[in-house]
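=== RUN LOG ===
request id: a7f3
mode: sequence -> structure
chains: 1
length: 651
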Amino acid sequence: MKSRPTFILLSILLLLVSCKPQATATPTFAPLPTSVPPTSTPTPRPLALAGTPISMSGVPISQENLVHLTQFAIWGKGNIAQVSMSPAGNLFAVATPLGIYLYDSESLAQIRYIPVENWLEVIAFSPDGTLLAAGSLSNAVQLWKVSDGSLEQTLKGPIDHVTSLAFSSDGNLLAVGGKDGNVNLWDSSKGSLLQTFGGHAARVHSLAFSPDGELLISASEDLTARTLEVSTGTVQHTFKAISKSLDQASLSPDGTILATGSHDGTIQLWRMDDGKLLRTITAPVQDVRDLAFSPDGTVLASASNDNKVWLWRIPDGALIRALPGHTSGVSGVAFSTDGTHLISGSDDGTARIWDIAEGKVLQSLEGFSSPVNGIVFSPDGSRVAGGVADSTLRIWDASDGSLLQTLKSESGAVNSVAFSPDGSVLASATQNYTAFLWDIAEGKILRKLGGHTKDVFTIAFSADGKLVATGSADRTALIYTVVDGKRRMSLRGHDGSVRSVVFSPDGIAIATGSDDHMVRLWRASDGALMQTLYGPTDSVTILAFSSDSTLLAAGSADGSIYLWRVVDGSLQQVLQGPGGMVKSMAFADNSKILFSATSDNTIRIWRVSSGSVLQTLKSVGLANSLVFSLDNSLLAIGSQDGTVRLWGISP
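=== RESULT ===
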């Protein structure tokens, strides 16, 4: 038996150890995983299109069942990237990131749809009209048979991103331009790479062969266009743009004139035989996005971001007329083979056939879409609302994707949307300094929320629905009362644009993230600054609270995600991705997992406790926004390709 003094001494020592101050825990910096644990792949299932009922399990998404996470549906045809008329004039093609839609040029009946695996950028008909070449974000060009939509062959070459295509007049050669500034020359029948031409210092956005096939013209973002001899690769002429950009180029049918277009609206006409600048057309337009010559070479059509197509007379550069009617930027133009009609594709989701002589729309093809910038479920999960770049808010039935409502905003692209907790009001943030509260039942604006002096990026309701917050490029966040739309508080202190604003679920705090690399926590009751959270080394692009309000996640432009403990502002962990801006985030499974969408076209699923990547979702259409239904059984993704995609646990 130990003596009493010894016992007392041991007790004192134990007490001293237990009272010793503990070192502050340092944040865990989760490294980029070298490999993701293998998971079984569920059996592929046909994706439900808009209007098709979705077969759902209703099982909440959790870290235990991620192996069964499946894409159920894709709503929308995608945004129009290019329009092209077949050589015979009987068909026209509309290219979207998802694939190629072929239509009868007279009846506008859809002939077929050719899906592609990677983001489609550019298409070109072969001169005989039997093939369609398709270039995407990958290093491959696919040749598709027009007759039945089957794949003829795939050309894989030393190029990282296909940006332009052109067939020679006899169809034997196919030129492929890339993001790296190189041009690859292929034998289109044999599928063999003949030659690679370097020289450009930036993306090659336009290619054309001379009518005799002896010259190849390439135009690049390096502000130059070049003509080179196909047989030798010798550069014959170099055209240097006098404006700040060179974004488009088109060769006249007889090969004598090259037209180039710029971001500032400038169009230049160059003589091909000696490289001399013939004429500069300074137009009241924004951003020349496409150029096309009429078949006789006397008229030039230009597509621009001012929602119009402009027609110019080549001999003197005079404006013939503008073709208004689109409600968003025009992305592509093409003439009919007889030159009497013009087809235009727009970000408003329509393709239109125009009578050139009358300047009137003959037919309009609808059903395409614009980038979906924001996405949100209604509180009861029955509807999905999206904020779209074409200045609209669209509300879909969550069960089958049928479009229930389209609300038209007059204030530019919609950047962010939010449902009120009772589901009766939809809030929207727009590019033109303004936010709105919409009465969904009536389909009209309840209140206009003013006060910002620059674009509004983000909007969010408080948990009780009494307040709504906005963040803007003017470096402020404004808090309004929903009942009357009056400004209650102004949160100031950031030195950069406020990219994200969010209320904590418990209603105590408001978090703001900014281009100044900081996150600030404000008291929701009076707007007092509670904490400033440091750590990010780049712009803070998105914020998300855990469901219990104890954690705050911040996504950064450098691809990293920072996790803080809200009670004391301590940095708990940094989730380090491989790069690419974090565009959206959402917690799931009682905040055990975190979904993040990044600009590298992936969605990563993180285990919050360890910072490890559990799974990666590929080919998600470049997600701009993601959100879970209230019961966590569905994940909705609003994408840059103009689609809404639904994921869930397979039945």
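=== NOTES ===
The chain has three domains: 60-75+369-649, 116-240, 243-368.
The chain has one helix and 57 strands.
=== END ===
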